[in-house]
């Protein structure tokens, strides 16, 4: 396995944050390029929430996506096997996901991760998405 990191959780496909990251993690894992630290959480946490929104099973999605070439092909599979979220559902999803860790039930986990990663003095890391980007070497949005 390499240390390839997936795309930012802020990336979107059809307006939906996190979906491209989940798809990227699946593809990188299937090709043996995903960093080992990511593997234990595949299909858990944010992945499960995203699949629930889309009405698809993670394992089935992973099977379909591991052979797809683009996020658009993955999206088409979701439309055929699950459900497309409405504009309102996308707005709620994006607002919820981009703020995870900020004054909610993930505050303690975020603070723990920041400390483990040496980011405890970084006031600009206010959400889990911010932490992920910082931890993977991207600038905070």
Task: Name the descriptors.
141 residues; two-stranded antiparallel ribbon; 3% strand; globular
Give an overview of the whole structure.
The protein is mainly alpha-helical and 141 residues long. It has two domains: 86 residues, no CATH class; 43 residues, no CATH class. Helices cover 49% and strands 3% of the residues. The chain has seven helices and two strands, in the order E-E-H-H-H-H-H-H-H. Strands 1-2 form a two-stranded antiparallel ribbon. It is globular and about 45 Å long. 28% of the residues are buried. The mean pLDDT is 94.
Low-confidence stretches: none
Largest sheet: 2 strands, antiparallel
| Residues in helices, as a percent range | 40-55%
Tally of extended strands? 2
What's the end-to-end separation, in Å?
Answer: 29 Å
Q: How large, in whole angstroms, is the Cα Rg? A: 15 Å
What number of structural domains do the residues give? 2
| Mean pLDDT across all amino acids | 94
Order of helices and strands: EEHHHHHHH
Q: Supply the helix-strand structural class.
A: mainly alpha
Strand content: under 5%
Principal-axis shape: globular
Strand order of the largest sheet: 1-2
Total DSSP helices: 7
Secondary structure layout:
Blueprint: E1 12-13, E2 16-17, H1 19-30, H2 46-54, H3 58-65, H4 71-81, H5 87-97, H6 107-116, H7 128-135
Antiparallel strand pairs: 1-2
Explain briefly what this protein structure is:
By secondary structure, this protein is mainly alpha-helical.
């Amino acid at each position: 396995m390499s240390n390839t990191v997936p795309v930012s959780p802020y990336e979107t496909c059809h307006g939906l944050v996190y979906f491209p990251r989940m798809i990227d993690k699946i593809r990188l894992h299937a090709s043996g390029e995903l960093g080992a630290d990511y593997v234990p959480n595949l299909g858990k946490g944010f992945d499960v929430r995203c699949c629930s929104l889309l009405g698809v099973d993670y394992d089935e999605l992973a099977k379909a996506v591991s052979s797809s070439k683009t996020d658009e092909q993955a999206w088409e599979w979701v439309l055929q096997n699950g459900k497309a979220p409405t504009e309102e559902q996308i707005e709620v999803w994006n607002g919820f996901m981009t703020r995870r860790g900020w004054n909610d039930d993930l505050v303690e986990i975020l603070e723990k991760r920041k400390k483990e990663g040496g980011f405890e003095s970084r006031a600009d890391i206010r959400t889990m998405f911010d932490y992920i980007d910082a931890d993977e070497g991207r600038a905070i949005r």
